[in-house]
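Thread: Newbie trying to understand structure tokens

Hi all, I'm a second-year student working on a class project, and my supervisor (Dr. K.) asked me to get a predicted structure for one chain before our next meeting. I've only ever worked with sequences, so writing a 3D structure as a token string is new to me. If someone could post the tokens and maybe explain what I'm looking at, I'd be very grateful. Here's the chain:
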Amino acid sequence: MNFLLAVLALASSAHGEPTLTLQSRAVQRGEVLLVIVEGNHPKTAPSGHFRGHPLDFFPAQSTGTWLALIPLDLDALTGLAKIEATLRDVKGHAALKTIEVTVAAGNFPVENLSVDQKYVTPPKSDTERIENESAQLKHLWSRFEPTRLFMGRFDAPIPGAATARFGERRVFNGQPRAPHSGMDLKAKMGVWVRAPAAGRVIFAGPLYFSGNTIIVEHGLGIKTLYAHLSTMSVKTDDPVKKGQVIGQVGATGRVTGPHLHWALKIRGARIDPYSLTSLDLDSYFSTRVVDALAQSPACGREDLPRPPAWGKSVGGLRTRTRPLKSVYAAGEPLTMLVEIQNVGKKSAFLDFVQDPTARASVLGFNRSPEPFSSLASSATTRLTTVQVKIPRKKVLCFEADRDAGGPLLAHATTFYALIYGTDHLYASTSTARAGIWRGQLLSPPVAVLVSTSASATGKR
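---
Reply by user tm_fold:
Sure, no problem. This is what the structure looks like when written as tokens:
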């Protein structure tokens, strides 16, 4: 499970008084804490501090809700600390709230690696390049974009097991180096890397140690880095959307094989990127869908390939799929539009997995669904679900571009059948929720045309 702290500070007996709470995966070095103020004056931001540093509050989507981030660097002081904030109700009356936390050291193992000796003791001819790149990166990390560019929750850029975890103490060829300030995710050469949230590219180019590298600014001091790429699909100053392909996994720079190095810094602090993905930011920023059944803008498009026949009805529901494009290039990321229709005699209720990267727990293509586990360094991802009501003759519509096997890629095998089942949602509970649909749906195989002459750009 995902360990979310919900700490209520000094619960007030006064009706309508603002509240101060804290959400995080853990309180230790390398984690980020989300400070939440609710019921505050909508036009006056709260003020506060943590260990002498001011809290920079920014508004959430809901009126009167304000948020602030506290990044705990790998070298952060441990022990007891206080979060103090002055909150103001709708009439402007101020109240001081306090949360006490104990910052733990964390457990970070030691890893021994063997690499080309030139990356441990670089030749003198490369010294000037390394120093220039170091100064350039230091400048990039020190710049903070005050505007929020992301729109909600952060996702992992690729699915893949961690081969080197955040905070590990690295020893290259017997020589100790700085702790690992990111996550190394195992992946084959050429796997598509996607932006975990919206932002702007502030660097895209080759570096001596990290090879082909991309840095994305997400605003509010949040920056993510992607290293050792084989190709880069974006350039400096390009805006990126959540889920957009920005490059491909490679083995450039100081590496022992193909993988993705994914790092996160928040106002210069080194943070485990999975600490950020564990925060339920969708609850505070995601735009509410006008039609609860249309979970994707593509649901209303009229230029999609012709839909196939519906699958067999199970418990009053049936499903079908179709690709978003008529033709894909070989190896190009493939996105399917999934539709689940209620053909029963009354409304159906479905526990719908909100996070697209976690839907492997309920869907598979040419395979059965599989339990989904996060690749987080110290916890598994919480499966956030929302109860969706599907009235008679109505359709739940959403996109799917991956399953438990990873991203869907267009290959010579051009038929894809969806298997949708909810059993894994309830594997850890003794009883299912009353009135919620349970079962397994199978769609007819859908044909995907793959052109060997087309260029795989990775973009729709």
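A couple of things are worth pointing out once you decode it. The first strand starts at residue 7 and ends at 8. Confidence is low (pLDDT under 50) at residues 1-15, 374-382, 454-460. Feel free to ask follow-ups in this thread.
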